Amino acid sequence: GAGVSQSPRYKVAKRGQDVALRCDPISGHVSLFWYQQALGQGPEFLTYFQNEAQLDKSGLPSDRFFAERPEGSVSTLKIQRTQQEDSAVYLCASSQGQGGYEQYFGPGTRLTVT
Amino acid sequence: AQKVTQAQTEISVVEKEDVTLDCVYETRDTTYYLFWYKQPPSGELVFLIRRNSFDEQNEISGRYSWNFQKSTSSFNFTITASQVVDSAVYFCALRVGTGGFKTIFGAGTRLFVKA
Fold this sequence. Notes:
The complex is a heterodimer. Chain A is mainly beta.
């Protein structure tokens, strides 16, 4: 498939556990984005990568959230010491660039913290 | 600051009715991009359309049409002759600047199309 893929699709974590969410963008897309979508809300920006450089992480809710894209392709969003308020769908998107380029979204990872 | 408002939380129509989803945006920048996305029950956001701030031409694509009016900061989306498969959550979004990357989404409008 040529689309954005994310794994796992569903993750249940006990409060305090660490989790890692993976995103495989469309091949050749330099821009990669992470969003958090709470139930009944629109996606909210978390962080942005251009190739391997993390250009903006202003949307990360706390220092428990960490994202990386070491080789400019696959990205991982890590959440340490998960809390109940972290429960949400985490969406990854990729695009050919900034500005007016449309973003292509993956199916998301639904994280439930119990 | 930028903001996107979708005042309609839910809309319910009967198949074949026309329906308009409203979107009002706020930005002080002169260069910006507006988007509409569809999120079906499967959860994956699907890109529908992009408009830049310098192009106010309305657009029609099959049963879909978009009305962009800078004077009222609105970018409304109309589905003509709605079908059950149109049932989804629709998001309007704003991105500012030619080098912009942060996309601001509205809260979405959930559309129910009944047979």
